[in-house]
Amino acid sequence: MSVELNKKLNDSKFTRWMALGVVAFTMMAAYFVNDVMAPLKTMLEGQLGWGSTDFGFYTGAYSFLNVFFLMLIWGGLILDRFGIRFTGKLAAILMVFGTALQYYGITELADSNSVYFGYKAGVFISSVGYSIFGVGAEVAGITVTKLIAKWFKGKEMATAMGVQVALARIGSQAAYTLAIPVAKSFHLDTPVLIGLVLLVGGLIAFFAFSVLDKKLDKQIKDDKTSVDEEKFSIKDVGAILSNPGFWLIALLCVLFYSCVFPFQKFATELMVSKYGIDADFAGSIVGLPALGALILTPVFGSLVDSKGKADNIMIIGAAMLIFVHLTYSIPSINGWWVATVLMIILGIAFSLVPSAMWPSVAKIFPAHQLGTAYALIFFIQNIGLWGVPNLIGWIQKEFCISETINGVNQYDYTIPMLVFTGFATLSLVIGLLLKVANKKYGYGLEKANIEKK
Ligand SMILES: C[C@H](N)C(=O)N[C@@H](CCCCN)C(=O)O
């Protein structure tokens, strides 16, 4: 009887998964917007005169405010201080505002001749918008991660994180697949407009989730059996930073994701220029990892929940990434089917590492430090997401222009792919060190998540 009385919203399987579905929609819209400009790189160069450095600057802008204005750190602190609902709504509003500004940059300012800080007005304002969007998207990311840890504690936490990431990948896949056909059928800016509409839907979805979350908080407060969660204090930052597990996860995260997200932004062009894949179809190939991750991330997540072995899964994922990037870098291997198979392997790696890494953070840190821990990890990851596209854009401009057709540069991707291979190799080394640290400090990364009744 008393068990029934203490039943909370998240004890109902249907309600906790429904709540996840609602917030996952917000993140799906965020991922759509995040990726929708990438397949348009060549069209942006042809129609708006955006060169590779402009594109690298724009792509890196996603992380600029997060890194240089420490927005992710503030976001994490706000999350642990003011909670999931306030932070999530704030993040969603920032995403909508940033995307609207980005849209303005590629529409109203498309033909402007003004130059700001050495960049065309359209490039600069779109990048400012993308930067604001990036703050919202990253803060939304840590908020959703923390809310999953709260709603699924002692339950299917890794599966839930996997499902959320998988649903987000639908957004990415849709962006990669639709951007070029939509831009060709309508207008170059139409894909971004679609993203803006989706994000407004995502904002409404987060407000709806907040109603459920408020109810859950009341139930937790009324439940005499539930243990009061310790409040976050600024001293916790020191505790997080002095934990070797934090540094290893953060380094693995920055290195691994630097080989995936920035690579994907340039990959549509790689598919066309090196593998001769039709431009209309190239985005779909680049979207394959997202599609694969859609199925595989929840599968690997539930494996981590039931069997554990997160430490080994991260190592295998990193090793696969080395193979993929190294093979892409070899000039003589240029069959379209090789490019496709490599993308599928990248998709498997891209499912293995996130499904094991993100739930591992919740094992290393207590609940009241989670928002800040995730924020600090995202912060370090964002340094890579800012620096790597800029680095690749610069390398392309300086060393990789193979020819110029109708004023549009063609790029050789050998050096950029070797750079990605280097990052992947380092991520494997860190994965191995994490396994050693796991043994030494007893984080329990090899253990299953689901509590046995
Ligand atoms: C880019 C963002 N900071 C990120 O790392 N996203 C992850 C998902 C993180 C979710 C954690 N529960 C991704 O793999 O997309």
Structure description:
The protein is mainly alpha-helical and 453 residues long. The chain has one domain (15-214, 232-441): Growth Hormone, Chain: A (Up-down Bundle). The chain is 79% helix and 3% strand. It contains 17 helices and four strands. The protein has a two-stranded antiparallel sheet. A two-stranded antiparallel sheet has the order 3-4. Bound molecules: ligand LXM4S7IT. It is a multi-pass membrane protein. Keywords: Lysosome, Membrane, Transmembrane, Transmembrane helix, Transport. It holds the Pfam family MFS_1.
What is the makeup of the main sheet?
A: 2 strands, antiparallel
Radius of gyration: 21 Å
- The CATH superfamily turns out to be MFS general substrate transporter like domains
Q: What is the average per-residue confidence, as pLDDT, rounded to a whole number? A: 90
Q: What is the CATH C-level name?
A: Mainly Alpha
Number of helices: 17
Give the total of beta strands: 4
Q: Tell me the distance between the termini.
A: 18 Å
Sheet with the most strands: spatial strand order: 1-2
CATH architecture classification name: Up-down Bundle
* Class based on secondary structure composition and strand pairing: mainly alpha
GO molecular function: transmembrane transporter activity
Membrane topology: Multi-pass membrane protein
Family: Belongs to the major facilitator superfamily.
Main location: membrane
